[in-house]
Each structure stands twice: as structure tokens, then as C-alpha cells.
Design a protein that fits this description.
Layout lengths: L1 H25 L6 H9 L3 H24 L15 H17 L9 H13 L5
Helix pairs in contact: 1-3, 2-3, 3-4, 4-5
């Protein structure tokens, strides 16, 4: 039983790491939020998938990893639950809405602004 659990975890890590490779390839150095918004607004399917969907999937994956790191940012994040595909779509939608409402981040690097947006949107509320 324990062996199959670790096997499932290993497969999940492999799938997620492949997604990160694609996200990293699609996120060019010095890409700004304006560049990302343009790609996400593109009607050209390949552009949208490579320059938008994969970037958000990679950022979400990094956020999950940071949220689980006991030595991480110190922010308690309440990230979207569910299967990776639906969680990624929710995350993408939420961050796009946040970006569009904050034009002051349009010239920022996607990774930095993505972190800022993730904390703003998904910071756990104290009970």
C-alpha cells in the first residue's frame, strides 16, 4: 500500500515537472505583464497555450511548492483546490483579473508580478 502511494506521488511530480519545463521555456527573460496579457488575449491558439496557459501552470506549480516549503516566503497561501487542470484554469482567471485591475504592474517582470498577485489573491484569511 505504501509503495503504491509513493509511486503515485512520483508520477505526479514527473507530470508537474514536465509542465514546469514547458512553462519555463515559454517564459522569456524580461517578459512583462503587458506581454503576458497580450498573449492571453491572443486568438491564435498556439500563442495562447504556450505564452499564457503554460506560464500560469508553471506559476501555480511554483506557488504550491512554495506553500509547502516550511522555510519559504512565510505567506500562508490558500491556493485553488481540485485537479491540476481545473485549479490551473481558476488560478489563471484569478490572476488575469488581478493583473487587469492593477495597471501599475504592467511593466513588471511576470515572475515578480505573479508572486505579488498570488499573495494578494490567495493569502489565507485569518479565522
Amino acid at each position: 500500500m505504501m509503495h503504491s502511494r509513493w509511486h503515485a506521488i512520483a508520477i505526479l511530480i514527473l507530470i508537474l515537472s514536465l509542465g514546469r519545463v514547458h512553462a519555463d521555456e515559454s517564459l522569456q527573460k524580461d517578459e512583462t505583464v503587458s506581454d503576458l496579457l497580450a498573449a492571453c488575449d491572443s486568438t491564435e491558439g498556439t500563442m495562447h497555450e504556450v505564452k499564457c496557459d503554460r506560464v500560469f501552470f508553471g506559476m501555480l506549480e511554483a506557488s504550491y511548492m512554495a506553500a509547502e516549503d516550511p522555510y519559504g516566503s512565510g505567506h500562508a497561501l490558500c491556493l485553488p483546490p481540485g485537479d491540476p487542470a481545473s485549479a490551473s484554469l481558476k488560478y489563471e482567471s484569478d490572476l488575469l483579473n488581478w493583473f487587469r485591475g492593477h495597471p501599475d504592474v504592467y511593466s513588471k517582470d511576470v515572475a515578480d508580478a505573479g508572486y505579488e498577485a498570488t499573495v494578494a489573491v490567495y493569502l489565507c484569511k485569518r479565522q
